[in-house]
Amino acid sequence: MNRLANSTSPYLLQHANNPVNWYPWGKEALDKAKAENKLILVSIGYSACHWCHVMEHESFEDEAVAAVMNEYFVCIKVDREERPDVDQIYMSAVQLMSGRGGWPLNCICLPDQRPIYGGTYFRKNDWTSLLFNLADFYKQKPEEAEDYAVRLTEGIQKYESIEFVVAQADHTKDDLQTIVTNWKRYFDKREGGSGNAPKFPMPNNWQALMRYAYLMKDEEVAEQVKLTLHKMAFGGIYDHVGGGFARYSVDGLWHVPHFEKMLYDNAQLISLYAEAYTWQPDELYKQIVDEIITFSTRELISPEYGFYSALDADSEGKEGKFYIFTKGEIAEILGDDTELFCIYYNITEEGNWEEEESNVLFRKDSDEALAEKLGLAVDELLVKINASKQKVFEARAQRVRPGLDNKILASWNGLMLKGLADAYRAFDKPAYLELALNNAGFVLDQLLGQNGRLSRVYSATSSQDSPVAFLDDYANIIDGLIALYEVTFNEHWLLEARKLANTALLHYYDETKGIFFFTADDDEQLIARKSEIMDGVIPASNSVMARVLKKLGLLFDNEEYTEVSAQLLRNVMPQLSKYGSAYSNWVMLLLDEVFGVNEIAITGSNAEAFRKEMENNYIPNKIMLGGNTGSLPLLQDKFGTSTQIFICKDKTCGLPAHNPADALNEVEARFYN
């Protein structure tokens, strides 16, 4: 066994028996490279990554390939989910060199960590040849290698950086229209989503566009959002038997998934479909939310109420084996009910994906349309399908399960906490709130040290005295805690969010650049200190911080928070019109700037009932606060003998409304006319 044997990361442990003399990222490996003047080979991936498994099997388990790696390189394995700071640097390098990135990510570096070459997946022969060539290049032409390293490191330091913008600009609807007009060009108006293949769910994109469609009264965008939500929910990217979404579909039809299931996707998709239900109620959205939460609590939750990171794409060494069925297998399970189930989920004798006779389950028709075709009542159809689905689920549960990545990450648990709060907000289901409260308790009890600093990775055995966490951990936990406050009016959660925001400002914010760094000022210093600005499958940590500081600034009447948020948006504004989908979370902040934020304060003994009634109405640009008592500035002098609702904006509140209907009329009158 190599030096990965003592790791806690499931991904590193997968490589502990490789003949490669792997080291984890750390002082021992980095010092060895300098002492022996050896190139560093940094190989980065994650446990649910299919092509990471393929490259391991083809190359890293091969004795001959390992001999080359061990002879000429100090080999370091990195779990990108535990060390996104390291991944961020070498991903930037590979994108600068090749214009593309992905995992596995393999970078060759000088002994001082500066990269000179990199790429993603390599076939065995190509990999071996590359390693010989690079080792020889470094030996024969060290000056040329140094020149490469200098230029590439300069590029990494500048990559995804922005200028400090001093000028105060008035943000307008025209700014929003320009951004979305360019964005529309990428819409797939037939199959939903953007572009062709592969297709990622990108929940933050569709949440931003949903809000834009509502506030700007853009029916074209509204239709694209609804099309996308339905196509994703009907597609093979969704697990119709067990719930939950895969990371992406390899085709443009949402049909064939890359089967790994990630916590971060499913957490955000809970928020997306829950908000969509409030926007335009659809029973499909409600079903999807409930099934994702059921899946997550069945397969991704720890006894302590932390959520694990992912399920693998592979089982028994084969991608998707757990999820696919032949028609014959379905017939063995369902007998006389086989045909109806196969029609519903498009299962055929020939099969509907790359492996002969195997099927990925997906839907084409709505329940109403299919029931009419088959001459059944909708209720009758659903009773039969749900009974069959339960039988298939029970049969599938006997199979060898995909591997579980049981890391518990602060950032992704923040996303899930927010998802659960959003689900409770939309559906008023006590079980969702109970889960959210338990998860929030876990985060604050187990991931927050006595010094007020977060740990990114939960460990039942390690000390919290010197935790390592990144900006996304703070940003997403703060966002989740604010969401939990808004559905409970318990100020404990909000006060904890404020403490974390102050810690983030102290250790991550650079006033001279008006941007947050991804790493803390007292973290390990790498070859570059980067900022995360562009939104991807997870919103950028800077955009999340900008949005939560805007909320906290309003809730606590704190000008510092408000100004930092405004400065971040000023800096990023020049980028937004170029490629809206890469700045979708910033677009939501811009929507709040243009339309203002409804500060809805509900005070009195009936505050919870009024809150629930207000939540049944779609008001995307709002914050909710209140309760029987409260210390927040906006609540002062607002407690009377009856329950009241105050609609406020820009430090000005209207007269109190005594029922939700009157309050909603005031929202309409003040903000949307």
TrEMBL record:
It holds the Pfam family Thioredox_DsbH. One of its GO terms (biological process) is carbohydrate metabolic process. CDD domains: SSP411 (cd02955). InterPro entries: 6-hairpin_glycosidase_sf (IPR008928), Ssp411 (IPR024705), Ssp411-like_TRX (IPR004879), Thioredoxin-like_sf (IPR036249). SUPFAM superfamilies: Six-hairpin glycosidases (SSF48208), Thioredoxin-like (SSF52833). Transmembrane segments: none annotated. It comes from the Bacteria. Residues 1-155 form the Spermatogenesis-associated protein 20-like TRX domain. This is Thioredoxin domain-containing protein. It comes from Mucilaginibacter rubeus.
